[in-house]
Amino acid sequence: MRQAIAGLDFAPILPLWLLAALALVALLALGVALWRRARGVWWRALSFAVLLLALGNPRLVEETRETRPDIALLVQDRSDSARIGGRAAQMDAARQSIVEAASRIPDLELRVVDLPEGGQQGTRLFSAIDRALADIPRARLAGVIALTDGQAHDVPAQPSFEAPLHLVLPGRPGETDRRIRVIEAPGYGIVGRSVELRVAVEDLGAREPGGAVRLTLRRDGVPPRVESVPVGREHRITLPVERGGPSVVELTAEERGGEVSTLNNRAVVTVNGVRDRLRVLLVSGEPHSGERTWRRLLKADPNVDLVHFTILRPPEKDDLTPLNELALIAFPVRELFQVKLREFDLIVFDRFSNRGILPPLYLRNIADYVRSGGALLMSAGPEFIGASSLAATPLGQILPARPLSGQAAVAEGAFRPHVTEAGARHPVTEGLAGANQGAAQASWGHWYRHLRAEPQSGTTVMNSPDGTPLLQLDRVGEGRVALLLSDQIWLWSRGHDGGGPQAELLRRAAHWLMKEPELEEEDLTARIEDGTLLVTRRSVEAAPPPEITITAPDGTTRRARAEAGLGGRATLSVPADQPGVWQASDGRRSAFAAAAAANPPEMADLRADAERAGPITRATGGSAHWLGPFGDGVGRPAVPELRRVALGRDAAGANWIGLRRNEDHLVTGIAALPLLPPWLALPLVLGLALVAWRREGR
Predict the structure, then answer these.
(1) What is the pLDDT of residues 665-693, one digit of tens each?
(2) Do 523-595 and 177-274 fall under one CATH topology?
(3) Which residues contact 420 (CB under 8 A, 6 or more apart)?
């Protein structure tokens, strides 16, 4: 809109200091005339005044102005906490009302921006306002209106703008919210021991906090455990770590009547079970070139406590030879295989033959140790054949293969170990460097002897060229057994004929025997990355993968078939858009994964709160208004009225919002008319001076 503004202006011909000096001289001259009571003193004063006015060059100036509309900013919070309950619908309706009201106000432009979800940083309300104000001249800013629940986590110490900030909040003041706050939760725990969680259940906004609530603990699908927890006080929870790998613990506090939401009544903690130092008993029998292979492998792992014995003397040779003359000591059979047997996590027999060293009672103890959860690894050579073979003892009941009889049991000649079809899917041998791929042969170095045996149970993961098992793995009761039917693996460690993955193969076999979670051949795992639930099913079976049932934290389920991959794996990915515990099941196994809240600072308090941004609102002269209770269903929410206010006036009332009138404009033209031009000023000054001279001359 254009308008013309007229006014008086001065454009002095002389500098102001010179005009001031002339005025002082004129005053002195008039002072002398007044003192002498001269007759023409007033005419002289008038002539001096006209002269000074002419030198000041008065003008009548007319400006043509183009007024610019003021700009108001409307910011709507789209974060997670602003979508709970009926908040999003309330704010959408309020936004529409404000936009319609602003369109009816002349000389006002309303700009609308959305505040997206801020992720782990909370709600960045004032950062969004500053970004939007970067394109708005501050001289035209009429005010800022924020449609938000008040959960702002970037409130500055001082406002970055001078216009009023008005908060429009869903709901009503005085809301309550119950939450679980995890004070301390260890990320790791030793298997067989317990960890302690420190949590607190708090009632935010409650007038009379206190009492006790029921807290339900769910862990990896086991029956829930319920405890009574005092409100507002720290509570300690002891959890046993029963297995290796991650365990998901979900804590749920009972709902409080009238609270805003139950989203933060739930907390999820993941405790990763790790084993303490593993105790391994290595018993070497007949000395051979690869005897040190096992010792080097196990000693290289700092998490392994190794007890190693080499049997060179049977127990009946315990004579009275003085210790300082004794080269070999008797094997502590009873202490190892009866008293302390169950203290070991793994027993390794390397080319051990039973020549009366271990009585049947102790061999039976080893078999019972495996059945009850222990681990046994045997590396066999020619001693595994004949009457002294361990296969002919009570230990043979748990071995997954039996050697053939006679000379045909020992096969001599160069060969390369071959990974079987099941071995290509088993975690012990899957993906070994240099292994055979399809029709291609392995690139490993040759071995020169193996034993022919008949498999009894378990899985053959490596075999020889004649098809007999070379590495047989089996589960026996609660324990596991691995049988290596060759004593030639040490050739790989020496790099013979190019070598092979000896250390990796034996490391995997040992850790599979000790039940490391990442080496389970039949397993289902789940994890959440970047808002996606990733389910991995692993199996040595060649059958197509079954359908996976996904259960969301809210109890809804869906079924989908996993996609088959390499190494016996099948994977499935689905969006994990809810915080809490997700469950995946293939019908036989279940896996759990914890999805943390997308915005933990915002989920910590779900009440609509005007006090977080209160200091900035008051500093700018703004106000806070409530839209009313959720879901009342009666028309539109109570949106405050929009009004224009002049600079310096109050910008808020009980039910209205004030937007400042800045009257910003652009000057498009200026016209100046001199009021005392020289052709008029000179005759006036001379005429008045002549009148004054004639009056004084009489």
Answers:
(1) 665 567 777 777 777 767 777 776 677 66
(2) yes
(3) 460, 461, 462, 463
